[in-house]
C-alpha cells in the first residue's frame, strides 16, 4: 500500500468548499420520501424469479422456535439452537431456499466484498475453506445451504412463505404465527432474523409504470431475459440498449459485466462511489492457515478487532477494509462528546481523509481515458460518508465505446421514466431494458417493516408502542411486553462491516436465552427497569456524529442528507466490547430476563 501524499491547508479548504457544493447538488427536499417500496403495483420488482412456490397444505401445528428469515441470521440461530438440544425449529422464509441476501442477489458479478474467510460463518465447524479471497455470491449462498443441511434445518422449514402476523396468546403463553400461505401455527419462541438489506426500493419518480421495455431490480435478476450466468455472458443483451440506475456497491459489481454483454450500456449515476483496489485471487488452505484448529475463529476475531479500532499486533486479512481502519480510527475520537480537543482530532482526520480521497480520485485519472468521464466518476466527499467500493474492473468499463456515463446529480437523479426510456435534463435515453441498482429500505424488513403486526401482551402492537415511547429493548434483542420474542439485527446493539460475525454472536445469545428458559421452564422477558438501564448505557456515551453526517453527501448512511436519527441507536463502544458484555451478562445475569410461566406448555 502506498503512503498518500500529505495535503496542504489551502487544498483542504478548497476540498471543504467542493464537498459542500457537491452535497448541495444532491440533497433533495423529499429525503427518504423520494423512494418507493417494491410492493402493491410495483410488487413485480420484488417477486421471486428463482423458485416457483411448491404447493403444500397450511400448517396448524406447534414448534419450539419459529425463526423468521433463512439468511445467515436464521441458519446461525438454527445451528446454535440445535447445539442446545432444541428440536422443533422452523425457519419461515420468503425466498425459495435459505441464503437471505445471497439467495436474492444473484446479479452478474455478485461477490462478497468482505474477505470470505472471515465473512462465511462456521468454517471451522463445516471444514469448508473458501476458494477465493472474495467469494462469488453463489459460493456464499451454497455455504448457507451447507450450514442448514449440517444443522438439519430443512425438514421443518417453510419456504416461499411470508409471516403476516405474530400474536401472543396469553392463555397458552405461545405465539401464533400467521403466514401468507394460510399457515397458523404455534411457536413457544419467535426469533426475527429478517436482515438489513431485504426490501428492494425504487426511485419514486413518475412514469416507472409506463416503461414498455423490460425492467427489474438487481436483487431479482432476470436471467430468462438477459441469458448468461453470474459470471456474465448475457447473450440476450447482445442487441439491447440497457440502462442501469445506481452506482453503489451493487452497481460497481454488475456494470463491468453488463458492459461486456450489452449492445450499449447507459449508466445513470447520481453520486459516484469510491472504488478502491480489489485484488481478488484464488486462495488455498495454506494461504489462510486452514490446517490449524480454530483458524477461522482466530482470523475472524482478528478482523473484528482491527475494524473496530482495537489494538492488534498482526493484520491477518490485510485488505482495504483493515487498511482504512487506521483512517477511521482517527475519526472516532472526534465523535466522543467528552473529547478534549475535538478540533485537533478533526483536523488530523480531515488531513488523512483528504490524502486517501486524493489517492482514490487519482486512481480514476490513471484508468479512465476520457477526461470528462473521469471527472464525473470522481467522488467528492469524505471516505466514511458512503459505503466504500472495491473493483479492478469498474473503471476500465468506461473506456469501452459501448458505455455512456450519464451524470444525474444536477437533476437529483433520473427525473422521469417514459414508455421508451429515461429522461435526464433535456435528454431522453431510449432503452430496451432498464435495471434498478437502487438499493434497499435499509433495516426495514420483518417486524420493522410495518407490514408484520406483532401483538404482544394485552394486544399491544410493537411498532405502535415504539412509535409512542421510542424503541425499548434490552441489548436490542428482547423487549418488555413481548415475551419469548428475540430480535436479531442492528438496533440498540453493535454492528460491524463483517455482519455475519455480529449475527453469529446474536444467534449464540438467542440460543442461550432459549436454553435457559427451557431449563427453568420460564419465559424470556426483560423488565422495564432492565430496558431503562440499557437505554441509559446507550445514552451515556452516545457518540456525537451528526455534525459529520450533516456534511456528507446524501445516502442511507445519513437519512438522505438529514444526519442520523435522534436518540440512542447503537452500543457506543463497538462490537468487540459488546460481545464481551453479552458474554459476561450470560454468565452472571441471565436470570434477569426469566419470568415465571402461568400457563402450561402447548
Ligand atoms: P445503495 O448503496 O443504496 O445504492 C443505490 C444507488 O442508487 C446509489 O448509487 C444511488 O445514488 C442510486 N439512486 C437511487 N435513486 C436514484 C435516482 N433517482 N436516480 C439515480 N440514481 C439513484 O444500494 P446497493 O448498491 O444495492 O448497496 C446496498 C448495500 O448492500 C451496500 O451498501 C452494502 O452494504 C450491501 N452490498 C454489499 C455487497 C457486498 O459485496 N458485500 C455488494 C452489494 C451490496 P446516490 O448515492 O446518489 O443516492
TrEMBL record:
Q: Which cofactor does it need?
A: FAD
Q: Which UniProt keywords apply?
A: FAD, Flavoprotein, Monooxygenase, NADP, Oxidoreductase
Q: Which segments constitute the FAD/NAD(P)-binding domain? A: 64-274
Any single GO molecular-function term of the entry would be: oxidoreductase activity, acting on paired donors, with incorporation or reduction of molecular oxygen, NAD(P)H as one donor, and incorporation of one atom of oxygen
Q: Which sequence ranges are marked TM in the entry?
A: none
In terms of Pfam families, this protein maps to: Pyr_redox_2
The source's superkingdom equals Bacteria
Q: Which SUPFAM superfamilies match?
A: FAD/NAD(P)-binding domain
For this chain, the family text in UniProt reads: Belongs to the FAD-binding monooxygenase family.
In Swiss-Prot or TrEMBL terms, this protein is called: NAD(P)/FAD-dependent oxidoreductase
Amino acid at each position: 500500500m502506498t503512503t498518500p501524499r500529505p495535503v496542504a491547508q489551502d487544498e483542504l479548504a478548497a476540498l471543504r468548499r467542493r464537498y459542500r457544493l457537491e452535497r448541495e447538488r444532491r440533497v433533495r427536499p423529499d429525503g427518504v420520501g423520494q423512494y418507493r417500496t417494491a410492493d402493491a403495483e410495483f410488487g413485480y420488482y420484488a417477486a421471486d424469479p428463482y423458485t416457483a412456490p411448491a404447493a403444500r397444505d397450511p400448517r396448524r401445528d406447534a414448534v419450539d422456535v419459529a425463526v423468521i428469515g433463512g439468511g445467515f441470521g436464521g441458519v446461525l440461530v438454527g445451528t446454535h439452537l440445535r447445539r442446545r438440544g432444541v428440536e422443533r425449529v422452523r425457519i419461515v422464509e420468503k425466498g425459495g431456499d435459505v441464503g437471505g441476501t445471497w439467495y436474492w442477489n444473484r446479479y452478474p458479478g455478485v461477490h462478497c466484498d468482505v474477505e470470505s474467510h472471515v465473512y462465511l460463518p462456521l468454517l471451522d465447524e463445516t471444514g469448508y475453506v473458501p476458494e477465493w479471497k472474495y467469494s462469488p455470491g453463489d459460493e456464499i449462498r451454497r455455504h448457507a445451504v451447507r450450514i442448514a443441511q449440517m444443522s438439519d434445518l430443512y425438514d421443518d422449514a417453510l419456504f416461499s412463505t411470508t409471516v403476516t402476523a405474530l400474536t401472543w396468546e396469553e392463555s397458552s403463553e405461545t405465539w401464533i404465527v400467521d403466514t401468507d400461505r394460510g399457515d397458523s401455527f404455534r411457536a413457544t419462541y419467535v426469533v426475527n432474523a429478517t436482515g438489513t438489506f431485504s426490501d428492494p426500493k425504487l426511485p419514486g419518480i413518475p412514469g416507472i409504470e409506463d416503461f414498455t421495455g423490460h425492467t427489474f431490480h438487481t436483487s431479482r435478476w432476470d436471467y430468462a431475459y438477459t441469458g448468461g450466468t453470474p459470471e456474465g455472458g448475457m447473450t440476450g443483451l447482445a442487441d439491447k440498449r440497457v440502462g442501469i440506475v445506481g452506482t453503489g456497491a451493487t452497481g460497481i459489481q454488475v456494470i463491468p459485466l453488463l458492459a461486456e454483454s450489452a449492445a450499449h450500456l447507459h449508466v445513470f449515476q447520481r453520486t459516484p462511489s469510491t472504488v478502491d483496489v480489489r485484488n481478488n485471487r484464488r486462495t488455498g488452505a495454506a494461504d489462510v492457515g486452514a490446517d490449524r484448529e480454530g483458524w477461522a475463529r482466530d482470523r475472524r476475531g482478528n478482523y473484528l478487532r482491527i475494524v473496530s479500532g482495537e489494538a492488534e499486533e498482526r493484520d491477518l486479512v490485510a485488505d482495504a477494509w483493515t487498511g482504512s481502519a487506521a483512517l477511521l480510527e482517527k475519526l472516532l475520537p472526534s465523535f466522543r462528546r467528552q473529547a478534549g480537543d475535538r478540533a485537533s482530532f478533526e483536523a488530523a482526520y480531515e488531513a488523512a481523509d483528504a490524502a486517501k480521497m486524493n489517492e482514490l480520485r487519482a486512481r480514476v485519472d490513471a484508468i479512465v481515458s476520457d477526461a470528462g468521464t473521469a471527472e464525473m466518476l470522481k467522488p467528492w466527499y469524505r471516505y466514511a460518508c458512503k459505503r466504500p467500493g472495491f473493483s479492478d474492473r469498474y473503471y476500465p468499463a468506461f473506456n469501452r465505446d459501448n458505455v455512456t456515463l450519464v451524470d444525474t446529480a444536477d437533476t437529483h437523479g433520473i427525473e422521469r421514466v417514459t414508455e421508451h426510456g429515461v429522461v435526464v435534463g433535456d435528454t431522453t435515453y431510449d432503452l430496451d431494458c432498464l435495471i434498478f441498482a437502487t438499493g434497499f429500505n435499509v433495516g426495514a424488513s420483518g417486524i420493522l417493516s410495518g407490514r408484520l403486526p406483532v401483538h404482544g401482551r394485552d394486544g399491544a402492537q410493537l411498532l405502535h408502542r415504539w412509535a409512542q415511547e421510542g424503541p425499548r429493548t434490552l441489548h436490542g434483542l428482547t423487549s418488555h411486553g413481548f415475551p419469548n420474542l428475540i430480535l436479531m439485527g442492528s438496533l440498540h446493539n453493535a454492528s460491524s462491516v463483517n455482519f455475519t460475525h455480529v449475527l453469529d454472536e446474536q444467534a449464540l445469545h438467542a440460543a442461550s436465552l432459549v436454553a435457559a428458559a427451557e431449563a427453568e421452564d420460564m419465559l424470556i422477558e426483560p423488565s422495564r427497569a432492565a430496558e431503562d438501564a440499557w437505554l441509559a448505557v446507550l445514552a451515556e456515551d452516545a457518540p456525537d456524529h451528526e455534525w459529520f453526517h450533516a456534511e456528507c453527501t446524501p445516502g442511507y448512511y445519513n437519512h438522505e442528507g438529514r444526519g442520523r436519527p435522534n436518540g440512542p441507536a447503537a452500543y457506543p463502544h463497538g462490537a468487540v466490547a459488546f460481545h464481551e458484555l453479552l458474554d459476561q451478562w450470560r454468565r452472571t445475569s441471565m436470570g434477569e430476563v426469566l419470568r415465571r410461566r402461568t400457563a402450561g406448555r402447548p
